[in-house]
Amino acid sequence: MRTVRPLLVSSLIVVLLSGCASPLVAGPGEVPPSSAAASSSPSRAATETAQPEAPTKADLWLEQLVLPPGAVPVEATPEGASFDPGRYAPPCRPVHRQSGLWFVPGAEFTETWNWMIEHPSADLVVPTAFTPNDDPQIDSRMLSNVPEQTSLEGVVYKVAGADGGVAISAEIYAFSDQTVCDTPPPGTSWGGPGMG
Length: 196
Fold this sequence. Notes:
With 196 residues, the chain is mainly β. It contains 2 helices and 12 strands; from the N terminus they run ββββαββββαββββ. Strands 6-8-11-10-9 form a 5-stranded antiparallel beta sheet. A 3-stranded antiparallel beta sheet has the order 4-12-7, with no helix packed on it. The radius of gyration is 16 Å and the shape is globular.
């Protein structure tokens, strides 16, 4: 296993989910916690006691990402790669985010996806909903690494076949002890990172 330190790190932003139970929405906005519309019964995030605090934790997860052998950081999406358009927006605030982008030259999508299923990063786990890929028609998927199976924070990977190899992007969503998550509508639950 290799750990690759990416060149690109996005600035920290606060992410808010706009009231629906599905966490996959386009473009999470930057909303101050004081102006966000909370539910009537907010609950503390399941990972609220995770240490260190969120900015350091996000940096640590980024530094400890486990990527396939040969992965190199890049500044733009590799030619031919088409990432899953879904965007995760945790129903919690504040949230600290980091990101990175890599290219694995000479790799194939299926072997790369299956390798990542078997090699979670840092002290994280791969949710059981993600399974090895055996469909040759699929060349773009999303998966996540989370602290626990029910966590709403973690790493969202997007893996896509590209010209001459495989492209991998990572979006990291980290909570702090001050993070509060909205209560989902009755009879529903929030999906975790990359879960839909």
